[in-house]
Amino acid sequence: MTTATTTADDRNRYRPDPSVLTALKTPRILTREVLAGLVVALALIPEAISFSIIAGVDPKVGLFSSFVMAVTIAFVGGRPAMITAATGAIALVIAPVAREYGMDYFIATVLLAGVLQIVLAVRGVAKLMRFIPRSVMVGFVNALAILIFMAQVPELIGVPWMVYPLVAAGLAIMVFMPKITKVIPAPLVSIALVTVAVVVFAINVPAVGDKGELPRSLPELFIPNVPLTWETLTIIAPYALAMALVGLMESLMTAKLVDDVTDTHSNKTRESWGQGVANLLSGLFGGMGGCAMIGQTMINVKVSGARTRISTFLAGMFLLILIVVLGDIVAIIPMAALVAVMIMVSVGTFDWHSIKPSTLKRMPKSETIVMVITVAVVVATHNLAVGVVVGVFVASVMLVRRVAHLIDVRREVTEHFGEARAYYTVEGQLLFASSNDLTTMFDYADDPERVVIDLTKSHIWDASTVAALDAIETKYEQHGKTVEFIGMNDYTTAFHARLTGGLGNGH
């Protein structure tokens, strides 16, 4: 009965609003989803080509990967409206495989990463999201905004001067267009008008076609020709595991970000194995794999207002149509138009509230430090996963330091049936950080023969604390005194009983 109720609650919790069926029946919502998908597809093209170059593979590998993953995740993913495609983080992780071992080993790595993501999803990796503090999440978002902006800087250096007024015009359109109408996404209008201006006035500026040649055919099935041996596994496994972990972390963090933006919930476990399935299919069609794309997701959700899987599916389909059928037209789109869109995304993504003087004044210094460290590590490494791991570690250390100072021991000597008794009250959370000093807080030599330690207001969390309590008892015995522990809750009693006397402290 309980299981059925929980399942029903989960279905309600993760039910998308609006649903795909509702969107298909509502012209206004459907139009928004279609146009959002088109904007994302246009923004995906130069990025996918750039990431292919980073990975050391042909541009079509990144483009086909983005198409396959976007379409696949639209059906199997847990977060509606999120965009999954080829990404820079994944390209950086697996680039050495293509460079040192060739394309077959490269694709084998992508396939193994997909399998590992499915296994990790089944093992409940998504539950680890609860251990990511808010300060790390804010740092993640701010670092992401900075990285998106930094990625546009090369497009603004050493280029014809006309690029700058075109970017400015694109930004102006996106700022003022929503004040006139929100029916058509402002980025789409900006891209169209800037492109028309470049064509009509024959302005010579870098275009999408300069990034690399667009493919002319559909993706084909690709089975990697690698020996099924232990040696092959030892070559690809480390890269595949790194790709799986980086991809899942970036995807789950993005899903959490979209949850916050849309004020909805999403199924992180489904998203985890969905990413694995998408990578598997990407590899089978010769793609480089990937994960959630935060910049494109923000274009889809925050800028264009998309909310359903329709926009994700159409982003993939439009991408295929644009590169295979309309490649010649897409090639003339000026990079200035797409740079303007991504700059707008970076500005909209950054959590400006987090750096306001009033916020910084109210926020505990430790929270601000964690946020700044997360941003610094991400920007320095260009790896969101590394930044998040470091941020969580620093937050954990700071939490432990705070907890270490939250323990209080009070001593009182009383008469009990004519017998002197030392009564200690221990208050606080007892774990390795706080219990290491616990043994120094008792007056072993001067206490009377009977000692009572009250743990009613404390909780034992680890073996270090049990060892500390054993050490306290041993020291009192060495002084010929008896000690009694009272007030343990059920968990503490069971935990203490299981470990006491067996931790090698001489007791």
Give a written overview of the molecule.
By secondary structure, the chain is α/β, with parallel strands linked by helices. The protein has 21 helices and six strands. Residues 1-6 have low confidence and may be disordered.
Key features?
507 residues, 4-stranded mixed beta sheet, two-stranded antiparallel sheet, 6 strands, disordered N terminus
Q: In terms of topology, how is this protein built?
A:
Blueprint: H1 2-13, H2 20-25, H3 27-55, H4 59-76, E1 84-85, H5 88-101, H6 103-122, H7 134-152, H8 163-180, H9 186-200, H10 230-262, H11 268-284, E2 291-292, H12 294-303, H13 309-324, H14 327-330, H15 335-349, H16 357-362, H17 365-381, H18 384-404, E3 408-416, E4 419-430, H19 432-435, E5 450-460, H20 463-478, E6 482-486, H21 490-499
Helix pairs in contact: 3-4, 3-5, 3-12, 3-13, 4-11, 4-13, 5-6, 5-10, 6-10, 6-11, 7-15, 7-17, 7-18, 8-9, 8-15, 9-15, 10-11, 10-12, 12-15, 17-18
Alpha plus pi helix count: 21
Q: Note the beta-strand portion.
A: 5-15%
The strand line-up of the biggest sheet is 3-4-5-6
Mean pLDDT: 89
Low-confidence stretches at least 5 residues in length (pLDDT < 50)? 1-6
Query: Can you summarize the main beta sheet?
Result: 4 strands, mixed
Residue share in helix? 55-70%
The general outline is elongated
Overall number of strands: 6
Write a brief caption for the model.
This protein is of the alpha/beta class. It has helices at residues 2-13, 20-25, 27-55, 59-76, 88-101, 103-122, 134-152, 163-180, 186-200, 230-262, 268-284, 294-303, 309-324, 327-330, 335-349, 357-362, 365-381, 384-404, 432-435, 463-478, 490-499; strands at residues 84-85, 291-292, 408-416, 419-430, 450-460, 482-486.
